[in-house]
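Here is a typical sample entry:
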Amino acid sequence: MSAPEIVAIGEAMIEFNQSRPGEPNYLQGFGGDTSNAIIAAARSGARTAYLTRLGDDEFGRMLLALWKDESVDTTSIAIDPRAHTAAYFVRHGVQGHAFSYLRAGSAASRMRAEDLPLPLIGQARYVHASGISMALSDSAADAVLAAFDAARSAGAGVSFDPNLRLKLWPLPRARALIAAAAAASDCFFPSMEDAQMLSGLEEPDAVIDWAHRLGAKKVFLKLGAGGSIASDGARRERIPAMPVHSVDATGAGDCYCGATLARLVAGDSIWEASSYASVAAALATTGFGAVAPLPRLAAVQRARVSRDNP
């Protein structure tokens, strides 16, 4: 088997997503930001691997089967018989979607730096993690930073999505550890909302300047329905969102990260990769759940042709 081009680290969960606002029915699916991103990358043609810990339970086995179906390498995933695989619920309402989590003490929160598969990390083109990956526990934060150090030592790129969740950790700690991760990043993927909270800044250009000052080499600022802005420090370009009938934005930002990385390893410029990822993320909002609507390469290519040739 060829070495993975993109390796992601974090926590995957079983998802229960409300099928319609106000209804008591939930669709079972899968989630977890870095898992969503690595599946999006795999569906966009990249060779991928995932690093996490799972409980020795039915939810863990369901996730392993999912990644196998998506051609994501799982050979370095640890099974923890003393902890559970996490789950979460998504409810939809007039204020958007709300999340409820069952993740405290999960197997993934027991990740440790000393358990990292360093040869696998060293073979990758990019190693990707998120603020959620770090917020799971002190040992998980250490594992992410150790993975980034190993990647940089081996000449691999580092990719980081702040994905701020203040239910998981206090803002001062989040700011400190996210700044450390951003300083190591070749690709930094903040959302505008998260960046405003972390930086105290309001304008996109100011946020991008802040991200580069932290040390991030390439910045991809996610603006939701407003598209995205890509910057390499010398040039920045705004990429408009593709209009779609959006029903659920769960996982769209993760899709953007994974799709961007997939196109970068395929040889695209950051501008081309961001343009592709913006279309992929838009398509990901046209169905319910974090994983099921993630588009494949051919679907994104068709959508881009249709957009450019109305």
The chain has eleven helices and 15 strands. The CA atoms of residues 267 and 273 lie 9 Å apart. The chain has a mean pLDDT of 94.
